[in-house]
Amino acid sequence: MSGTGFDYECSSLSPEGRIFQIEYAEKAVETSSTIVGVRCKDGIVLGTEKIVVNKMMVPGTDKRIYSVHPSAGCVVNGLVPDGKSLMFRAREEATQYEKMFGIRIPGNNLAERLGMRAQLNTVYASQRPYGSTLIMATHDHIKGMGLFMVEPSGSCFEYYGCASGRGKQLARNEIEKKNFREVSVNEALPLIAKILLKSQEEMKEKKQEIELSIMSEETGYKHKILDRAFVDHLAAKAAEEIENEQMDMA
Amino acid sequence: MEKIVSVKEPTMHTQVPVNIGTSVFGLRYKDGIMLAADTAVSYGSMKKSKKSTRMASLSDEAAIACSGEMADFQELQKILKEKREGDEIENDGATFLKPRDYFNYPSRLNYQRRMKMDPLWNGSIVGGVRKDTGETFLGMVDLYGTKVEGNFLITGLGAHYCQVLMQNAWRPDLSEEEARRLIEDCMRVMFYRDKKATDEIQITKITQAGGVEVEKSYRIGSEWKLEFFKNMTNEFWRPIRIYQ
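Output (structure tokens, whole complex):
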């Protein structure tokens, strides 16, 4: 992609009507780890895979899933610090809203505000867009559960299932294939672990980790990041299954 | 000489409590901690509400009972809730959430606010039992930020009327029944003596097994047919005074 001078800042459109800086930001997202969010029968599952690049890094310190308030959580990819900054913004918005109005912020409002924030970074020459996509699971007493994805361009939609990152296409296909809305969260967890591992096929030689969180009826619609031991167990099982499938194919 | 004109300062509404709850009680007993308060909230001498809860659970192992300005109590609850939720979503393994912390935090907060000449007008008793160790905690914080820990604690007017009652009757091995009776006795004394108290009380139990239980309020009986109340007070005392 060459912008021939139109890609230095995102305040100007190219003659074809594109903003290259946004496309570059999307590129940063596309080459990074896969994140998925899936709405199930009784809750929402968020997940991400990641490659352990540095052997000397303490495991469990590279977190990608965060809670925003007790019943909202998000997962980010791309430039993780960018995503984290967006997440902190979400926390601020949530506390500020609750202070002002006395109720927890509705999920769609929160997502919308994050979208606005992300969009704001695409209109000034002095700023660059966020280099990360954020998938957020929320629950409120007005609209119930909601799953939202905020992209670097600032677009924000509600989904039944969404994915972003290097395995976006594969993950999306898998999610569409399986009707997750008929499946409970506990049943969906191993499937999603499998999708995440599959989506990083080409990185297979490197050490891989996955991270999962749920928000379901069982947890009282509280966002709960699953503990490492359980997730590692799920991942090991999923890896085994994938290997078996490949053996059958061969 | 020039006359010194005293400038009247503007009224500081935050420095005057408006809706007031009267004394609260807390004591250690065999199984854990018991907190008690009556359910009245007064606006001056008028009882604005006779059915208010003046205690709240802070986590599954700590609770607070508050006397003084009720709006400030609600604010304190909000602050503590925000703090707790903020710590919970951090999910970093570090916890703020032990009963003693729920005591230290309001004390620091109250001290800070008092130094700003804008205190939270509360006397609060915080009680808790740690789920892991079973260690009990009972502490009292006043509007200056003073911390007091003890086996039985009373705020407000109750500290003047019931301190000795508690001192005489309290033992570390009080059963739940005895603890309840002791608190009811104290509350009855307060109902007779304190115009801002009612005879409807509420108790919170905190135990290692059961966690925090905020009970429903109930009425303790009172007896007004005593000779002392029937006659005029002065008439009752006059003969005694004369013959002394």
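The helical segments of chain A are 20-30, 80-101, 107-120, 168-177, 185-198, 228-249.
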